[in-house]
Design a protein that fits this description.
The protein folds into two domains: 11-99, no CATH class; 106-134. The chain is built from three helices and eight strands. The protein has helices spanning 96-102, 110-124, 126-134, and strands spanning 11-22, 30-36, 45-49, 60-62, 65-70, 73-78, 81-86, 89-93. Strands 1, 2, 3, 4, 5, 6, 7 and 8 form an eight-stranded antiparallel sheet that branches. Helix 2 (110-124) crosses helix 3 (126-134). The model has no long low-confidence stretch (mean pLDDT 84).
Length: 136
């Protein structure tokens, strides 16, 4: 997902410490990883920037805010400091919890459960392992 569109928030408020990773060799110059205040159940949010990281940006920030100003311009603030970023931003949210909550697990048929229970019980026993190896 790229920077927010009209119905998404125009800023991301991080809570606690976030990691600021620099990627000098690849196309992504900076990756921010942390938790947000907007989505408390998310494990992590990653924001990747296709621009070089500011030279004075520390390796970690606390309670930072990222504002999307439009035209591939962003402002990152933490405490009393601020950094301007010029480049495309890609927001990656962890959606596994919501995904598995929306899709319940498939019911396993009774015969298949019995089959695997018997196979695992045979594999756990030395005599059963010999029997299984012989039937191969």
């Amino acid at each position: 997902m790229t920077a927010p569109s009209g119905d998404e928030p125009r800023s991301i408020h991080f809570r606690g410490w976030i990691s600021c990773r620099r990627d000098g060799e690849g196309p992504l110059g900076l990756i921010l990883v942390g938790r947000t205040t907007q989505h408390r159940r998310e494990e992590a949010v990653q924001v990747a920037f296709s621009c070089p990281a500011p030279a004075d940006l520390p390796d970690a920030l606390e309670d930072a805010r990222l504002e999307f100003l439009g035209g591939n311009r962003q402002r990152l603030t933490s405490g009393g400091r601020s950094w301007a970023l010029q480049g495309a931003a890609h927001v990656h949210r962890e959606v596994a919890t919501a995904f598995y909550k929306a899709l319940p697990p498939r019911h396993v048929p009774f015969k298949k459960r019995v089959f695997w229970r018997v196979m695992l019980a045979l594999a756990a026993n030395p005599l059963g392992r010999r029997l299984l190896l012989r039937s191969r």
